[in-house]
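Handout, section B. The chain below has 569 residues.
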Amino acid sequence: MATLPIGVERVKTDVVVVGGGGAASRAALSARQAGADVRLVAKAPLKSGGSTVHGASEIMSMGAAGFGDGRDNPTVHYDDTMRAGRGFIDPELVRVLAEDAPGRIRDLMELGVRFDRAGADAYKLIRSDFGSYARAMGVSGKTGHAFVQAIAERLTELGVVVDAPVMLVDLVRGADGAVAGVLAYDPSRRVLIHYEAPAVVLGTGGMHGAFERQVSTAEMTGDGQAICFRHGAELVNLEFHQFGPALIHPYVQLFSKSCFVLHPRITNAEGVEFLPSYLPDGVTVEEVQDEKVFPFTTTNVSRHLDIAIAREVDAGRGTPHGGVYFSFAHVAPDRIAAVIPNTARWMRQRGLDVQNDRFEVGIAFQCMNGGVRMTNADAESTIPGLYVVGELAGGVRGPDRPGGNSLAEGQVFGHRAGAAAARRAAATTVGPAATLTESLDGLAQALATRPSGMPDLVGIEASVRRAMQRHCLVEKSAEGLDVALATVREAQAELDGALGLTPDTLLPGLSLRNLVQSSELVLRACRQRAETRSGHYRVDHPETDDAHYLGCFVWTRDGDAAAMRTLTY
């Protein structure tokens, strides 16, 4: 084994959970409640990172049947979800999601989450996109934060040790191929930590850091996706991700349908109301705004708004931060208060005036719909003993999904993964760390002196983010995707070999390596799907092609390359 300039510590536990968002924290809590000794490892301090904590919109909520209309039930929830993603999502996982979600809502209530009410005897429920009934429940625009706050308090009370900020570096596997723990890096102490455990739950989130404009936290750089791919796990539906209009400066906030029914005035940097010039005959600006949904979808006329914003920015007529201008100055104050109370409150708390300010709104990445494939209802991956949850996981989100399902998935499969990990830990003895030496040798190489000096990490990251923002959001084409692929492959070439990192640059260097690899996988999936389907808009293939593309792409490592097969559920 090569000599490292930093120390290596060993921590032995039953279950390691990596991630600090809603799904990961729920997994840690459930594993602890099942009797396991649990360590929670998070790249950002607990309660400060991830999509669940930072996700915010007028209607952010969790979907679960049984709290409103008597005609709604888990079977209807299942049917709604399957209708939105049939052929791309695992029916068994969807059934578990629909059946378990009400119980996870009750768990949150017991933890102290106070869901919004519509009077003393009823909850305030939202009918989200693709939902037959109103079933989505929220907490006054801060639903995700309320979830993580309540769960974090409880898991701390139960003695779960939290190591943060600590970054996942690699999986550690035994000679039989099963997971045997993880290797992580504590940048504040400049030490590597080898967590020995027979069960690992990964909830590392998405790859928000791959885009110039995104609505969560940039520490999500596709770490879990890249590391799982390098270890041979299967990944699915990588070409499907969600994005749409969002306030991008000086703060970030999604603009949901509620904002658009107010008919904001939309202009480019030159003061021109540009949307009419992008609309086909017979389609009005008011119709587009009334139909607007988040995320972007090609299934209705609201697509023209996202396309118009992206094209104006690409043409150089965007605002200083890469958007266009929205104004609600012509809207009556009482209507603003009635239609977007949560958004208005959120803005006031940050010194913004909905009525009088002009806002920069751009196209922002929200989340991945694909990820590491869950093979069963306990969220186990194709690597034995490795469970995947939250935005990292794939199998229940395809081209479309009902609003409220994302938070439900995190709670349902976070709980199941944590409980299953605890059962595995109780029945399994962790084997020798067969792959640890290889991981440490790779780090020694990354930390070795490089004659040409350390690569320009900031510049490389910026080039990747520009390429992904321009070519991998609203409008995709073979030509544009090839440009982006060339950019990420050039970035990979600059990072290959001895990186010349130092203990201070190890975390950003490894993060960038993961970001580049995850971006290439997403771009390849987008390039492979030569059709338009929901949010995947190929301008060079504008029609949906069920004859050739009804099914999800499954990606696995094949030597130094990636192999793909099609799976239709």
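Note. Residues 69 and 243 are 30 Å apart (CA to CA). Compare this with the example in section A.
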